[in-house]
Amino acid sequence: MRTHNEKVSIYHGMVSTVAVNLAGNFFPLFAIAILGASNYQVGLISSLPPLIALIMTIPAAILLNRLEQQKKTVALSVLWARMMFLLLAGVLFINSSYQAWAFLIIVALMNVPGTISTIGWQTLISGMIKEERRGTFFSDRNRLLTIVGMITTLIIGVVMKDQTDNSVAYQFLFVVAFLFGLLEVFFLLKHKETVQPKINADDKRSSMDWTIFKDNGYKWFLITALCFNFSWQMAWGLFNIYNVKYAHATILWISIFSVMNQLAQIFTFPLWKRWAEQKSNTLMLVWVSVGMAAAPFMTVLSTNLVYLTFVQMTSGFFVSGTTLLLFNLLLEKSPKEKRTYCITTYNVLLSFVAFIAPQIGIWLLEITGIQKSMGIISILRGFSAVIFLIMYIKFMKRDKNMVSGTTRGHSSLSDGH
Q: Would 113 disulfide with which of 2, 80, 149, 157, CB 3.0-4.6 Å?
């Protein structure tokens, strides 16, 4: 039986997924097909949002830490972010030579309120869902959200299959995405939030608690997760460029890619949940990294759109593991009493990585070509698997030593008696 907050969180996630799929999925296609964006500008679609997030994360965390209730602030931030969709619809009324840059600026600014809402939601939901229910809840939630995303994307692809070069079609998508953004705000406000003790404005710890870096588990999580994200995000711009410029994918094919990727995720969320419970989040991330390493190499083997659909489907299997396991591992390795600081620090560092990585990917494309750059990224992703394996072995040994130490302690007490 789901709690009220679990139900509302799922409804919020569904409308949020629709809003993002209606707009965000087609940002690169809109930029290339309608605005004539260059490779560098396409790379900035992935890089600018995390740069803004990097700048905003610490101020956002300080703001949220000082609040007794975060729900209203998070909801207001979502409203601001979704209102930016209306500005995107108006980009086409600007002089054509400035359209691409105007588009990029709006996409970047969208992440000012977006950063506040992201950190706020992560902290909010971590306090609302009991630890023993997290694995099941997030697995179910992610699966349901993926189904909604898949249906939304499929409908868009079918309805607008011949509208790839129609600028009005994109404007329509942005406006409808804004309307679903209003529903996001509504469901966010329906959550029942527990009032948190207000942190004194004079308390220096409200800005940052550096003792989180003394926690060995959290330090290892940061190293492994950031290495993985670096190699993962290097390819984001390259995939968009390859699909549109090399494979000449239309709105329909971009939708099919997304649908098949999401379909694979739907069926595999429960698998990753079960495997993580049986083995561990860390060990499963080793296999996730191996699978993600194959995607760039496999993509550039052909421009056949049916083949690329198959690659997207296999990639979806590992994307579901990435989505579920990384967030679970973050919560697992973050000390409960310092969780907000841990989440904030991770988001700051992740934003820095997300800004740099796509630009390095585009740089590799320019100096080596699409084939070699994708190959290099595959190798780097494989290296991430090695780092996760080292982390798993290290903590497996530590846990065994702790168990054996406890056993010896009990034996000593028994002998004493």
A: 80
Of residues 188, 243, 163, 156, the one with CA closest to residue 77: 188
Q: DSSP letters along 339-356, please? A: HHHHHHHHHHHHHHHHHH
- pLDDT by residue for the chain (417 residues), tens digit each? 778 888 888 999 999 999 988 888 888 888 988 898 888 888 888 788 888 888 887 788 778 777 777 788 889 999 999 999 999 999 989 888 889 999 999 999 998 998 888 888 877 777 777 767 777 787 788 778 878 888 888 888 888 888 888 889 899 999 999 999 999 999 988 888 776 655 454 444 455 677 788 888 888 889 889 999 999 999 988 998 999 889 999 888 988 898 888 888 878 878 888 888 888 888 888 999 999 999 999 999 999 999 999 999 999 999 888 878 888 888 888 887 777 778 878 878 888 888 899 889 999 999 999 999 999 999 999 998 999 898 888 877 665 555 445 444 444 444 444
Q: What is the DSSP letter of 196?
A: P
Locus of tokens 């008696």? 417
pTM: 0.70
Burial category of 338 from C-beta neighbours within 10 Å (exposed 0-12, middle 13-18, buried 19 and up)? middle
Please give the structure tokens belonging to residue 110. 């969208």
Say if CB 325 and CB 204 are below 8 A apart.
no
Burial (CB count within 10 angstroms: exposed 0-12, middle 13-18, buried 19+), residue 214: exposed
- The structure tokens 């971590």 sit at 126
Question: What single-letter amino acid sits at 152?
Answer: T
Residue type, 180: F
DSSP state letters, 249-274? --HHHHHHHHHHHHHHHHHHHHHHHH
Count Cα atoms within 13 angstroms, Cβ side, for 260: 16
The CATH number of the structural domain formed by 4-191+213-400 is 1.20.1250.20
* Cβ pair 8, 193 in contact under 8 A: no
Select from 327, 312, 326 the least CA-distant residue to 265: 312
The answer to whether the beta carbons of residues 58 and 349 sit under 8 Å apart is no
Which token pair is 76?
């207001």
- Name, in order, each residue with C-beta under 8 angstroms of 98's C-beta and a sequence gap of 6 or more: none
